[in-house]
Give the backbone structure.
Amino acid sequence: MISEKEQVMKIGIIGCGTIGAEVAKAIFTGTLPGYVLCGLHDLKEGQAASLSRQLNGGVPVSSLEPLVGISDILFEATAKAAMPDIVERAIHYRKAIVTMSVGGFVDRPDLIESAQARGVHLYLPSGALGGIDALLAGKEAGLNHVTLTTTKHPRSLHGAPYLANRNMTLDGVDKPTVIFTGTAREAIEGFPANANVAITLSLAGIGMDRTGVQIIADPECKRTKQEVVAEGPFGVIRTVTEGIVAPHNPRTGYLAILSAIAVLRRIASSTRIGT
Ligand SMILES: NC(=O)c1ccc[n+]([C@@H]2O[C@H](COP(=O)([O-])OP(=O)(O)OC[C@H]3O[C@@H](n4cnc5c(N)ncnc54)[C@H](O)[C@@H]3O)[C@@H](O)[C@H]2O)c1
């Protein structure tokens, strides 16, 4: 019989910002059992070193390649542009990976097939979005259309390439204003730090070119609102998630951090709840 201790997985954290740090702390404090932290990696070494200090210096700062090599499972929370290379290495070394920067799949959709071909487990948390479980179930009967409407405070959208490329500023927005309508693929290009959920929804549903996205800037918005509508032979799914933003990063929802922790808890558990 395998003991609990033998089942503990060595996890490498890649990206020690808002999400990576909270996941590492959950493991370090024992809130999230089943894992032991074997290394921290960040493009900014000081960021990984600072997190290591917060974890009493017990977790080494590592460069990427050795960390992938020694880990049983990887947790990626870096950036859209950085994700494909990291996932590619995980696939090469046949290491399971939980990836948050799902926008990276827009440029490298082949990674999903590569992971499947090499038997590598690729986990994409739902993020700050409800409804993925029902959507996956509904997809078994077919999906006719899927839309996502995101309502955020303008400060959460600050710095998005879509706005910068059009010299758009949201400073004067004094009422709820639709600032973007398009496909999920166009949304992640224009809002790479905001639209990851659109890509997760697309991958779970009908793809990046058929999933419709609308982004609304609302200066009165206290909680980021994500509304999903999906329709198919099973009926209609309508979900509304209103989440608070992470304390130090207005672009990231607190629920996204919790979703990452929940996925890791599920991986370490023998019970699966939900689709
Ligand atoms: N899936 C979702 O629902 C969801 C929700 C929120 C955020 N995200 C995404 O998750 C990722 C992390 O979000 P966050 O809020 O923690 O961001 P953050 O900016 O707080 O932290 C990101 C960290 O990654 C590091 N980094 C950047 N490029 C790197 C690279 N090439 N190699 C190693 N480290 C690198 C940065 O230095 C930073 O410390 C982002 O891509 C974000 O868009 C996804």
Q: What stands out?
A: The pocket of nicotinamide-adenine-dinucleotide is lined by residues 14-20, 41-44, 47, 77-80, 82, 100-102, 125, 127-128, 193, 196-197, 200, 249, 252, 256 (CB under 6 Å). The first strand starts at residue 9 and ends at 14. Residues 132-253 form a domain with the Dihydrodipicolinate Reductase; domain 2 fold (CATH 3.30.360.10). The CA atoms of residues 246 and 254 lie 5 Å apart.
